Amino acid sequence: MSVKQNQWNLFDTEACTRCGECFHKCPEMSLPLEIAKQEINALIDGQDSKHVLYHCTTCFSCNLICPHDCKPYELILQRWNELYWKRGAPPIYRFVCPTMESNIWQMLEVLMPEDEKVEVQKWMNQDLKEEVLLIGNYTHLFSFIIGNSKLLDYFTPVDLLDQWECGAYLYQGGYLDVVKEIGKNCKSTFDSHGVKTVVPFLDAVQYMIDTIHSKEMDVKFNQKIINFNKWILDKIENGDLIFQKKLDFKVTIHDNCYSKADGGLYWNTARDLIKKTGCEIIEMEHIKENALCCGFGAGASWKNKNRIVFDILAGAKRKYEEAEATGADAIVTYCGGCLYLLWAANELFSSNLKVFHSIELVRMALGEKIDINQKMHKKRAWDIITIISYHIFKGLSKDPFRIEDLEFTEEKWKQKKFRFLRFMRWCFRSRVIQFLFRKIFGFLLPRMKTKREWENDGE
Ligand code: SF4
Ligand code: SF4
Fold first, then answer.
1. By the number of CB atoms within 10 A of the CB, which of 3, 23, 350, 399 ranks highest?
2. Contact 177, 81 (CB under 8 A)
3. Distance CA 273, CA 231 (A)
């Protein structure tokens, strides 16, 4: 299937006063006001930007900041979409394209233990029924956070990798035309199988279906969408699910970028649920509308294809510093995408924080057994670090590319042996190699530019 470039007009140019507040109050860049005005003017006029297009972490906050609801975030996405058609996607993005050779899911399969592989395959080969729980591409990477839970008994869990989380992570990079095609494919899959209710594991997928596809892309879904966290909360409040145990962790909560969509649709549901488990919440300095990205979003505003991973981890380091400053025992995320990045960062920065997905707290409170020592998580973090490192090396000699193949075929998924990957993973079992790898990463990480530094630069 070939993807065509569309004209996107998602920003309200008429209503914009070019005041610059959106980028001045941006929690990630906090540009000095004069620079912020220059940037919004450049973006509106279709000129290259000096800062926003190359430092934005795609966090959604500017949509909440704009007093006129102009949607500056969508303006950034439009400009990134144009850049994509000019220069392509960075080579390392191949690993998050489930239809391309050597993607992260295909590579992880050779590193996964057998019992986990069986569970994941069951979800992948499941027939779609009227009510499905979308496990999703991200949760697939840490499948044990939900695998074997009684929460899965209420729905048919399905793992449709070529539904690309309904385009959620590509949307954040501005790949708007690709996302629209993904939306059409998802809709057609659900319709042709008679799916009536979809319960996404990821809030972002709900937002994609309910808002982005239907309002921005004219792809209207017929299915009813149920928010999983809200569904659990209701079940607890009705007494259908009963917490057996009160947890006594002090936790700090990471608000993901999609949680800011639609004015903070998902902040409180996650907090209410976590409070009910008994955990004490200690908030970070930046939360909700001001929350800082886990780091992942830095990949959207790439300039140098070989620096992307370092930019991402620099963002993750800043997040960890803020989380550790709270004195909490654990950082909790309610997004599976942030989970895998936070875990990779946790291992690379040797943090003492535990990292939980909120669903793991729920399961513990329900009396289910989970890997409380987090050995599986740590092992998976190193699986992922190995896959990313493999792609860093491979990406050095590759050029940017276009995302053309959106649908899965058995042929594309055929199992390779990945001998070099397995050798790398074997090396990463050594604590000495882990130690050296951490040192190299620490040395290469760029520093994030703070507001004071912008001002000192006199820009
Ligand atoms: S998008 Fe909104 S906040 Fe940004 S410059 Fe325009 S009016 Fe001001
Ligand atoms: S999306 Fe976030 S990082 Fe990007 S400009 Fe808007 S507020 Fe700043």
1. 23
2. yes
3. 10
Instruction: Specify the pairing of strand 280-281 against strand 330-333.
Output: unpaired
pLDDT in tens, 139-189: 999 999 999 899 999 999 999 888 899 999 999 999 999 999 999 999 999
Pair of tokens at residue 298: 């830095």
Distance CA 453, CA 364 (A): 44
Kindly provide the residue ranges of all beta strands, DSSP E only, lying in 307-366, ordered along the sequence: 330-333, 354-357
Q: Domain residues of the chain, as ranges? A: 21-87, 91-400+410-444
Give yes or no for a contact between 42 and 48, defined as CB atoms under 8 angstroms apart: yes
Q: Please name the residue ranges forming H helices in 125-225.
A: 136-141, 168-171, 176-192, 203-207
pLDDT > 90: percent of the chain: 79
Ligand 1 contacts CB of residue 306 (under 6 A):
no
**Mutational pocket test of ligand 1: of 14, 66, 69, the residue with most ligand atoms within 8 Å of the beta carbon:** 66
For the record, the structure tokens of 433 come out as 């190699």
- Sheet containing 280-281, strands listed edge to edge, beginning at the edge strand earlier in sequence: 280-281, 250-254, 330-333, 354-357
**Separation between Cα atoms, residue 142 and residue 355, nearest integer Å:** 12
**pLDDT band, very low/low/confident/very high, at 456 (cuts 50, 70, 90):** low
Q: What is the pTM of this model?
A: 0.94
Residues 150 and 370: their CA atoms lie apart, in Å, by 12
Q: Is 412 in the pocket of ligand 1 (CB under 6 A)?
A: no
Ligand 2 atom 6 nearest Cα: 62
| Residue 17 near ligand 1, beta carbon < 6 Å | yes
Residue 57 Cβ contacting ligand 2 at under 6 Å: yes
Ligand 1 centroid – CA 42 distance (Å): 13
Q: Is 28 in the pocket of ligand 2 (CB under 6 A)?
A: yes
Distance from residue 57's CA to the centre of ligand 2 (Å) = 6
How does pLDDT run across 4-54, given as a tens digit for each residue? 899 899 999 999 999 999 999 999 999 999 999 999 999 999 998 999 999
Report in angstroms the alpha-carbon separations of 286 from 190, 275, 282, 346: 38, 19, 12, 19
Q: Give pLDDT, residue 447.
A: 64
Calculate how far, in angstroms, residue 21's C-alpha sits from the geometric centre of ligand 1. 6
